[in-house]
Amino acid sequence: MHITQLNRECLLHLFSFLDKNSRKNLAKTCHKLLEVFQDPLLWSLLNFHSPVELKKDNFLLGPALKHLSICWYSETVKVCNTEDWMKNSFQKDFCKRHENTVSDFLLDVCNRCPNLLSLTLSGCGHVTDNCILQLLKNCPNLKSLKLENCVRITDHTLKAVTLHGASLQTLHVDFCRNVTQAGLDRVREKCPSVMLRAERSGNMIPDSKPGKKLMLEKASRKLVQI
């Protein structure tokens, strides 16, 4: 029995076990399998492990998407999450090449995936408050928002949660150093039903703190003297 003799339900089930590249390669073999690949029911869950994957033509983005995860675990994440004034010219050039990749993708999600239920971002150092604001506005059913090591996320995102996160049940802002304790307290006050977790965030030194560079330099000199 040839694979194309299976009914659509069976083919969708078979495709569900494959990764994005395997699905794309299989879809190239015949028109029937291409139709299965393009079925929105196949794309309710998307996981990405690098910003580069967001540019590949091996997935379908649409209203069927319910769960999205972009988790980048790599040595280069450390570069992107380093403060700009600490980066050398090579590191700045490296970051500039993909600075808008995740943000542009998320804005596309805003326009095409109104039924999104959960979003997880880890290591996405270039994602801004505006991206999260637009997602909350355009995805009113969002129940889970988990952010980890996203250094450009600030209290503006927390404020957006209180204003537009009516459906939100879970909020994580772990290792987001520009989130403050005051911002976290505001979420707890205005959204008491939200399960909030902020590991290390409120206690980390924010980038925007006046004189931070000078303060760190002085602290470093003291350590050397000791």
**What fold name stands as the CATH topology of the largest domain?**
Leucine-rich repeat, LRR (right-handed beta-alpha superhelix)
| Domain module count | 2
Which structural class matches the secondary elements?
alpha/beta
Distance between the termini: 77 Å
Helix content: 40-55%
Shape estimate: globular
How would you concisely characterize the structure shown here?
The chain is of the alpha/beta class and 226 residues long. It folds into 2 domains: 1-42, Monooxygenase, CATH 1.20.1280; 44-224, Leucine-rich repeat, LRR (right-handed beta-alpha superhelix) (Alpha-Beta Horseshoe). The chain is 42% helix and 12% strand.
Q: Could you describe the 3D structure shown?
A:
The protein folds into two domains: 1-42, Monooxygenase, CATH 1.20.1280; 44-224, Leucine-rich repeat, LRR (right-handed beta-alpha superhelix) (Alpha-Beta Horseshoe). Helices cover 42% and strands 12% of the residues. It has helices spanning 8-15, 20-27, 31-37, 75-80, 89-97, 101-112, 129-138, 155-164, 181-190, 212-225; strands at 45-48, 67-71, 118-122, 144-148, 170-174, 195-197. A six-stranded parallel sheet has the order 1-2-3-4-5-6, covered by helices on one side. β4 (144-148), α8 and β5 (170-174) form a beta-alpha-beta unit. α2 (20-27) packs antiparallel against α3 (31-37) and α6 runs parallel beside α7 (129-138). The longest helix is centred in the last third of the chain and has 14 residues, at 212-225. 24% of the residues are buried. Residues 209-220 have low confidence and may be disordered.
